[in-house]
Design goal:
Helix content of chain A: over 70%
Oligomer: homodimer
Distance between the termini of chain A: 38 Å
Strand content of chain A: under 5%
Number of strands of chain A: 0
Radius of gyration of chain A: 18 Å
DNA sequence: CAAGGTGTACCGGCTGGACGGTATATTCAC
DNA sequence: GTGAATATACCGTCCAGCCGGTACACCTTG
């Protein structure tokens, strides 16, 4: 478990969020109920509602958590490889796709779809993040189109894996990641 | 119960499917109700239930329609550019991403997510299609990794647009498509 | 051809159950 | 004892699926 530097962290709160992700992955976004999440988290419904006053707030927290966790992964990979900032395209690839507990990313993707299924506006957080990133690669000296293709491919792979419709073998997946790294390199000519 | 052969095209049936896509796009997957779809299609709920005996069957039809429509787009683009088969990577790009009524793809993507939200198993159709396509690019003489990246980027862009979180300008999007075409070309060296 | 029969397409009300949310009770920490 | 954290019971709403009915287009058959 990584320690979260953000706001006050309640252990129960975290347990609920994790349980919610599990439930979504198991039964699908639309069939995720508050009772189900509470049961999976080992908490009563009232306890759940204490931490998240409404279903929407739970979904919102899930979406927010997704963005934060994603940024964490990239940040971690960036400091790990010692890349200068402005060149975090490769950190995205390594940080997101080569993550050790693969299930983490899959679960968070599923949570994202849950948020989307229940309320499209909950995706605003993601949209802002994408807008920010798009602007970043546009204003830097990197080849825009190549960099954009890399980010799109990352999204595509994540989506497939979250929806469990990815059909790559481990070896094929590794080759794809290597290819993405190469395209990212080419973008820095 | 009336079993409909998959080929029979009832005008009402088609109208319902289109309405369902519209509703999903408007209110989100989880808030899609049979009443809402029936109203949007200009039929009564009973009429809807006549064509689709259950909500699941409606969702299933939506997913199936998605796959079929996708194949149609590619097939159409392939015959349009006169490419030899085995080289339909570029046809995928042109057929799916450069589609004229953009809303069509967006709507179908939304429908796909609706199906996924209500029942993960409905995605089996998509999974099979992806498996088939993965095998195809693996066994052909095309550079597997490059081709895979192209398909992933297509998926990523489609997903972003279906979820309305894409932030590209028209001009940027065009450059991305051109870049994909170029990478597809490079894959055939 | 008329009268009754049969199948298709569609309608709209109903209901049982599920689900989100509230109100209230209880426990625990300080 | 005070307030945070958690549990239980309950309420109102919403919705999927069912059912009985209608309209109409066809057969039959006498």
């Amino acid at each position: 478990m990584a320690e979260l530097a953000s706001n006050t962290i309640s252990p129960a709160r975290e347990r609920i969020l994790e349980a919610a992700e599990r439930v979504v992955g198991d039964v699908g976004a639309a069939r995720m109920t508050l009772d189900g999440v509470a049961q999976a988290a080992g908490v009563s419904k009232g306890g759940l509602l204490y931490h998240f006053p409404s279903k929407e707030s739970l979904l919102g927290a899930l979406a927010k958590r997704y963005v934060e966790s994603m940024t964490d992964c990239v940040e971690q990979a960036k400091s790990g490889t010692g890349e200068t900032d402005g060149r975090d395209l490769k950190a995205c690839i390594v940080g997101i796709l080569a993550q050790q507990p693969r299930a983490k990313i899959v679960g968070m993707g599923a949570a994202l779809f849950a948020a989307a299924a229940n309320d499209l506006t909950l995706l605003e957080v993601i949209r802002e993040r994408i807008a920010q990133y798009t602007k970043q690669i546009e204003s830097s000296d990197v080849d825009f189109a190549r960099a954009a293709v890399v980010t799109l491919a990352i999204d595509g792979l994540m989506m497939r894996e979250s929806l469990r419709i990815s059909c790559f073998t481990e070896e094929q997946r590794e080759r794809v990641v290597q290819q993405l790294l190469q395209i990212a390199d080419e973008a820095y000519r």
